[in-house]
Amino acid sequence: MKFIYNILISIIVSTGFSSTYCQESPTLDLSLIKRENIEFEALKPFFYLIRQDYIIVSETDEIIKLGGNDFFGRDLGMGFLTEDRNIIFPGYIRHPWEKDKNFNEYRSTHRPECTYMKTKHILDSTYSIFDYHEFDDNQQLLKMPYGRVGIPCTKELIESGTLIIFYSDHPVPEDFDEITYSIIYLNEITWKGGEVVDIRIPYVGKQLILGGALFQRLITKGMVKWNLSGIYVPVKEDWIIKSIN
Description:
By secondary structure, the protein is mostly beta strands. The chain has one helix at 38-43, and strands at 2-5, 27-29, 47-58, 63-64, 73-81, 86-90, 110-121, 128-129, 141-145, 161-168, 179-186, 196-198, 208-220, 223-235, 238-243. A hairpin with a 2-residue loop joins strand 14 and strand 15 (238-243).
């Protein structure tokens, strides 16, 4: 995986030790760190890819797929494993046809239907089918049960934090190496209506943004702990941070 470290987070640590992180609790002992990218290494266990396939159906119930596949199109985005054993992800993933150019000529004559939703940790090689359909697809943020403990969430409207944004040259990247990420440290965060933050989209060229998340970073007695504070979601042609509430 490539990364762009937009804002250098300067933390003086001793050298000669290996980095560590704990999946059950995102806590890092700074005395054991030698890697530059502390934030990503600590939070990586909680990053998941969510892939949604769909088909289209004619007025006579004829199902159409493309390219010999079992789907017409698909979309992919980032999900984040939380302490309550859910993966939280942006709701746009459940509408993969909205930005699919192949669907344009069918919009007035065919209806899209979601089929398989699959998920995997960003380091895994294969997806698992997720058989869960109780979504309110009108919500900006959705949750699906996963069965593992992840990062704690905070409903606090934090004033500063770490925003990690993921993007790719590939419309539906399959491998970790096809994804790039940027780390941006935000100060003086202004929440509108107590739930969203407008933020300028970082320059990514022709790459597609896959999503991201805002994390609260707490440092006490040489230890760092993180909480999930918000999810990076698209709104029309822009992106915002939606708080966890």
